[in-house]
Amino acid sequence: MNTFKGTGVAIVTPFKDDRSVDYIGLEKLVEHLISGGVNYLVVNGTTGESATLSRQEKLDVLASVIKFNNKRLPIVFGIGGNNTQDIVDCFKTYDFTGVDAILSVSPFYNKPSQEGIYQHYKAIAEVSPLPLILYNVPARTGSHMEAETVLRLAKDFKNIIGVKEASGVIFNSMKIIKNRPEGFLVLSGDDILNLPIIASGGDGIISVIANAFPSDYSKMVKSALAGDFRTAQQMHYKYFDMVHYMFVDGNPPGIKATLKILGICKDTLRLPLVNVSSATYQALENLIKNTIN
């Protein structure tokens, strides 16, 4: 489980102007992240626009990242949804060669009870050949996975090894950290809350901003995990304003705009997502210029 401590990156899926997958841009991004010192790559998450990728595209993107990565970093693959049986069927049919763990979002839209969320993950855990990381993001799913449900799953299933906590509620993370079984990972799902979660005993982050600034962000996380909060605070506040503008028009439009400014890949999105406003783009350009210089 130490494999997934530190900085994981929810990588974007670059698109060409015609909105097909840009595999050249994807390879460039993977190299950028590996050279930046991140700890692992997360493919097919929210930031990767998984909601608008076909099943075959998801598998093709995964296969490409595995190829580009060439066994240098662990890979986490996102498989989630609101149809439990469909997810179970995916686990029974997918080839997971080259994948080290699964990130699975709590069911969305259906708004299940806490017992429903538990039974959903129970069904997945019973068929998964790989370790599972839970993902609580109520702003997107419409339902909150309570700390008690996370802890129940952590204690009942050995292959559920952690949670990506993106509720925005520090208390929820603290409650899990206080009562978790030994070795269970609590990973921030919010860049802005990463430092306080680590300071509370958390284990790292699955980051968005690290797509753009992997070296600095990895340094911040490593410093915080080592107890060097003076260095970590400096890095945290270096990007504090940029994080705001990176999310003000949604995710991943903000991070894709940032990657375009840095010359890593295009900022093309698939509908219903659209590009950031001109004001946000200008603010990001100015912040990047001042931060890098």
Structure overview:
There is one protein chain. The chain is 46% helix and 13% strand. It has 293 residues and is α/β, with parallel strands linked by helices. It has one domain (2-237): Aldolase class I (TIM Barrel). It has an eight-stranded parallel beta barrel, surrounded by five helices. The mean pLDDT is 96.
Primary descriptors:
293 residues, alpha/beta, TIM Barrel, eight-stranded parallel barrel, 8 strands
SSE map:
Elements: E1 6-10, H1 23-35, E2 40-43, H2 55-69, E3 75-78, H3 84-93, E4 101-105, H4 114-125, E5 132-136, H5 138-141, H6 147-156, E6 160-165, H7 170-179, E7 185-188, H8 194-199, E8 204-207, H9 214-225, H10 229-238, H11 240-247, H12 253-261, H13 278-292
Parallel strand pairs: 1-2, 1-8, 2-3, 3-4, 4-5, 5-6, 6-7, 7-8
Helix pairs in contact: 1-2, 3-4, 4-6, 6-7, 9-10, 11-13, 12-13
Give the averaged pLDDT, no decimals.
96
Order of helices and strands: EHEHEHEHEHHEHEHEHHHHH
Unreliably modeled segments: none
The CATH topology turns out to be TIM Barrel
CATH class division:
Alpha Beta
Radius of gyration: 18 Å
- Overall shape: globular
Task: Sketch the major β-sheet.
Answer: 8 strands, parallel, barrel
Strand content: 5-15%
The tally of helices reads 13
Beta-strand segment tally: 8
What is the rounded distance between the termini? 37 Å
Share of helical residues: 40-55%
CATH homology-level superfamily: Aldolase class I
Structural class: alpha/beta
How many domains in all? Answer: 1
Task: Going across the biggest sheet, name each strand in turn.
Answer: 1-2-3-4-5-6-7-8
Indicate the CATH architecture.
Alpha-Beta Barrel
